[in-house]
Amino acid sequence: MSRLVMKFGGTSVANIERIRNVARHVARERKAGFDVAVIVSAMSGKTNELVGWCREAAKLYDAREYDAVVSSGEQVTAGLLALVLQDAGIPARSWQGWQVPILTSDSHGSARILDIDGSAIIKGFEARGEVAVISGFQGVNKDTGRIATLGRGGSDTSAVAIAAAIKADRCDIYTDVDGVYTTDPRIVPKARRLDRVAFEEMLEMASLGAKVLQVRSVELAMVHKVKTFVRSSFDDPENPQPGTLICDEEDIVEQQVVTGIAFSRDEAQVTLRQVADHPGVAAAIFMPLAEANINVDMIIQVASEDAGSTDMTFTVPAADFERTKAILLKAQPQIGFASLHGANDVVKISAIGVGMRSHAGVAARAFKALAEKGINIRAITTSEIKFSVLIEAAYTELAVRTLHSLYGLDKA
Amino acid sequence: MSRLVMKFGGTSVANIERIRNVARHVARERKAGFDVAVIVSAMSGKTNELVGWCREAAKLYDAREYDAVVSSGEQVTAGLLALVLQDAGIPARSWQGWQVPILTSDSHGSARILDIDGSAIIKGFEARGEVAVISGFQGVNKDTGRIATLGRGGSDTSAVAIAAAIKADRCDIYTDVDGVYTTDPRIVPKARRLDRVAFEEMLEMASLGAKVLQVRSVELAMVHKVKTFVRSSFDDPENPQPGTLICDEEDIVEQQVVTGIAFSRDEAQVTLRQVADHPGVAAAIFMPLAEANINVDMIIQVASEDAGSTDMTFTVPAADFERTKAILLKAQPQIGFASLHGANDVVKISAIGVGMRSHAGVAARAFKALAEKGINIRAITTSEIKFSVLIEAAYTELAVRTLHSLYGLDKA
User: Fold this and answer.
1) Half-sphere exposure of A236 (CA within 13 A, CB side)
2) Residue B396: left (phi > 0), alpha (psi -120 to 50), or beta?
3) Identical fold at A3-249 and A261-406?
4) ipTM
5) What are the φ and ψ backbone dihedral angles of B390, each rounded to 5 degrees?
6) In chain A, pLDDT over 70 holds for what percent of residues?
7) B313 annotated as ligand-binding
8) Which residue in B65, B78, B79 is closest to A82 by CB distance?
9) A36 annotated to a ligand binding site
10) pLDDT (tens digit per residue) in B334-353
11) Cβ contacts of residue A292 below 8 Å, gap of 6+?
């Protein structure tokens, strides 16, 4: 029989009533002839409660104990969905990460899946016609046998990895939106739902601020060629919409130049003025940040007014802003700069599309359009299939709408 | 080094503040030179929440899934206590039942512990000076590898079993009372805390309604000769009281005839009138109840006024009262009785003491004292070290106080 993986997030399993609704979606797919593995998140709010306790217990908490505590949320949901499925007459059982097993690296709190043995789940399909309800977000440390979690949003990754392990035909990620949009519909009412998005585009969108899928789940789907749908758990279970298919570029017939506009408010900008312009100065700035595990994104270097020195501007995640400033001020004697300026009222706006590969001047049109609206660009980065601009946060909506229209993404 | 098991119940770990208090008790014992294994229950209220969800999910729930859901409560507490201990500078790690492992039978929801491999925990003591924080109430099904719970109060059993497995010097059961009392102090203000109770007495007290320890934990302690203390987690961690020692009869110097008075309101009385008095009638009554897993306790048979027939009175757990009536009425043609009468406004009051073995007439004094207070005895059972009377529930307090004074248990 064909196999299907279905993943349901926290809002889709927030209470027993919603879990019953999930069971209806599962029942439909079983009726359609699929062996089904369901991956579930914790009931919404539960993970935050558990994380809150960990923080209250210890400021610098042991990630292995954090994982033991936090993974319990998914354990509960898996058991409850199995109960609800059984109650609806559908054979089902729950699987914890260590029971499957889903083997992970030892980076607790953000572990990577190393290997999944899908044989026990497949045996459940074949011997007992059983739906496998699998706790998302968790696995077991290959070396120590301790519970390891995959980091926030990790259940998406669990789902895609399980789909690859059991060679599922499809992986359906059910969420509270009905697919992937050209941009956030709350900001641009004319945003359109996309029928298809290329893996590469989805990867950029997820990396650049679209919250619909975890980045690593998209990487995995791309590597293992897992046909992945993003769709709504709030559709009528008897008559659902197909959602958005994440697929190979070749499977997208009518390719747009730009597929979507993403934005991220989680950015902060740091500028060092009058940095001594000598070899090794970039290393002096960025090595201590790398050692502190701070991701530096956009970097711009311009000659300063003062000869023999440059100004260096770059962005870091907003959450790391204060730490970044502290580290750099501490290293000021080694680096050698006159002053440090920072801003966290900035936003990074990105346009993504595999069509950029074959079209020149895509970004230039954006710069012009933004300039016409009086929006000052503070930094730019580009790659093969996307470009990003850093602007003042107050212009977020205006800039997103401008680019959305510019590239013909508005709904008719 | 000497080893110690400490067990903390739900109210002792109800929030992070109380868990910090638990850590102080652990710190004291470590300072005193013990390697410590701590067994924890779920935070109070959590198990009820989880059980409520299971019931909402499915009326007739799969005990295996119930166990997966409900065991998560202890998992959370174990991780949190490990975090709090680490935060206080004490090396610690959490152990789930399947990690120890604690192997159980397959009777999910009320599994029996079959075997515990204490070697990993002992290695943690010896190699890393690590406190082992173990989730109570749970183990792993020896055959299927699924999580199995031990039934309500199972954490006491976990604690005693772990103590036996790691050959602990002592097992301290911390609770919200400071020991075992001669009777419930809420009913008899003159109740006294006992310094020592014999295993056999504690077993009877637990079976007969004293809620301080789970029956099976006392059985285990008795079989494995685990020196067990019942003590308070709300004592000053720097200067705690010793609590009550559960120990061998020989270790109790000054033996009382009666050690304690227990009472249980979870009883219901059933009377069948004019039962045909022929061989096999008792089997006809009690076999169907046994098949329905209903525990019949006190049984009295008296000749009825109608010659050739008897009246049969017995007690069942109050929770099984309705089922009992339904089963008997269905079997009325086979049994042959005129009418069924039932009452659940009854209470069973018991006096317990190993001294009864060597003293005659202990129960007779009680019958006289109760009669003098105008309390009607509906049924009596006796065994070597206890006797119980069934009386109308309205007389509970009066009867308990009467017996408590009668046997010299009142505080000076």
Assistant:
1) 2
2) alpha
3) no
4) 0.84
5) -100, 125
6) 100
7) no
8) B65
9) no
10) 899 999 999 999 999 999 99
11) A320, A323, A327
Q: What is the CATH code for A3-249?
A: 3.40.1160.10
CATH topology of domain B2-251: Carbamate kinase (3.40.1160)
CA distance B68 to A330: 50
Binary contact (A65, B94; C-beta < 8 A): yes
Q: Residue A83 and residue B62: Cβ atoms within 8 Å?
A: yes
Q: Which residues of B touch A38 (CB under 8 A)?
A: none
Closest residue on chain A to B91 (Cα)? A62
CB B330, CB B377: distance < 8 Å: no
How far off is chain B from A35, nearest CA to CA, in Å?
20
The nearest CA of chain A is from the CA of B241 a distance in Å of 27
pLDDT in tens, A237-283: 999 999 999 999 888 877 789 999 999 998 999 999 999 888 788 88
Pick the CATH number of A261-406 from 3.30.2130.10, 3.20.20.60, 3.20.20.110, 3.10.170.10: 3.30.2130.10
Nearest to A72 among B19, B76, B87 (CB): B76
Please check if B259 is assigned to a binding site.
Answer: no
| H/E segment holding residue B379 | strand B377-383
Cβ-Cβ contacts under 8 Å between A and B: the total is: 113
What is the residue extent of each domain of chain B? 2-251, 261-406
**A305 Cβ partners below 8 Å, 6+ apart?**
none
In the sheet that holds B228-232, the strands lie side by side as: B92-95, B131-135, B34-40, B2-8, B170-175, B228-232, B244-247, B196-198
Q: Is the CB of B62 less than 8 angstroms away from the CB of A86?
A: yes
DSSP B202: H
Predicted TM-score (pTM) of the model is 0.86
Q: Is B345 annotated as a binding residue?
A: no
